[in-house]
Amino acid sequence: MEMNARYTSFVAVGDSFTEGMSDGLPDGSYRGWADLLAARLAASSPGFRYANLAVRGKLIGQIADEQCGPAASMGADLVTLVGGLNDVLRPRCDVAQVCARFEEGAALLARGGGQLVLMRSPGRQGPVLERFRPRMERLFAHLDEVAARHGAVVVDLYGSRALSDPRLWADDRLHLNAEGHRRVAEAVWQALGLPAGDDWDAPLPSAAPPGWGARRTADLRFAREHLVPWMGRRLTGRSSGDGRPAKRPELLPYEV
Fold first, then answer.
1. What number of CA atoms fall less than 13 Å from residue 209's CA on the CB side?
2. Of 186, 191, 2, nearest to 78 (Cα)?
3. Residue 175: helix, strand or coil by DSSP?
């Protein structure tokens, strides 16, 4: 795709994926693909401005209601929307309602006038993906229709060979690690028609799988540190994003 656009501002909306979990920085904060993309765009555009309204744990209705209107009012050249996965991964989910709220959010952002980018979220190999695959694929099929109506660019991370590799995912098995986020930033960069830095979807080098003992140890650590707390939040109606402000709520100059 050759778009040959020069972007001077970028606003990102969504959930933990766009917030940057789990691309951790030394101070305990998260970087992530959106920050990486902003830094790369800023390097060639003096005065470049960036906002990131994403908050972990948000459902698509919350994203549409809380983030999309403010993002559209910023009038950025570039806007990204990724959401709905937190909805479809829940035990009960009205996929039709998720699709409808996603379209509402996309329509709001499109009215802001910037180039809209949508993404099919990546999926990690394993039983969780297989269980929820029909819901995800129904949402992603609708996403294509939304993109066609609003002239949006679609970045297909779900179909990636590399991003399904467990080695690109964090210990929580829900979020990409630093290398995974770097590849997503490169994928979006290329989808915008900008010169490729590398093959973001290149498979990782082959490696011997971990032994039985190592797998069991990892499974127990995952259950203790991530699965049990996640289940507790679901049972009590809490979210990891409750009370948490947007990552970067104002469209301000981004210092490289």
1. 7
2. 191
3. coil
pTM of the model: 0.89
Beta bridge partners of 81: 13, 118
Closest CA relative to residue 65, chosen from 53, 79, 77: 53
* Cβ partners under 8 Å of residue 15, min gap 6: 54, 55, 56, 57, 58, 59, 63, 82, 83, 85, 86, 241
Distance (Å, rounded) from C-alpha 109 to C-alpha 169?
A: 29
Give pLDDT tens digits for 163-194. Answer: 999 999 998 878 999 999 999 999 999 999 99
Give me 13's structure tokens. Answer: 């909306």
CA distances 68 to 74, 81, 97, 169, 218, Å, are 10, 9, 17, 28, 38
Total residues belonging to the chain:
256
* CB neighbour class for 181 (10 Å; exposed up to 12, middle 13-18, buried from 19): buried
